[in-house]
Design brief:
The chain has about 80 residues and is of the alpha+beta class. It contains one helix and eight strands. The strands form two sheets. A four-stranded antiparallel beta sheet has the order 1-8-3-6, with no helix packed on it. A four-stranded antiparallel beta sheet has the order 2-7-4-5, with no helix packed on it.
């Protein structure tokens, strides 16, 4: 899923059952997930939320994001195919 955030827009993300990968394709976003740290995710970078984890994201510039399943879930699928 892709989304565009104008500067200053806030979005709440939920890692759900499988987790979530946020990839910033343009712009710059700030992310906090309740661990006492702040994360800046610039264009070309990504961040993974664990299963059940919540985060708040704010666009520090107009930004484009891709949201999808975590790389670890994709790896499990490939390993599952190899094992068959």
């Amino acid at each position: 899923m892709e989304c565009c955030l104008p500067k200053g827009e806030l979005v709440k993300l939920d890692g759900g059952k499988a987790g979530l990968t946020l990839r910033c394709t343009s712009g710059l976003v700030w992310l906090t997930r309740g661990d006492g740290r702040d994360y800046l995710i610039a264009a070309g970078r990504s961040f993974e939320l664990a299963s059940g984890e919540m985060a708040l994201v704010e666009a520090l510039q107009s930004s484009e994001l891709q949201l999808g399943e975590p790389a670890s879930q994709k790896l499990k699928a490939v390993i599952g195919l190899v094992a068959c």
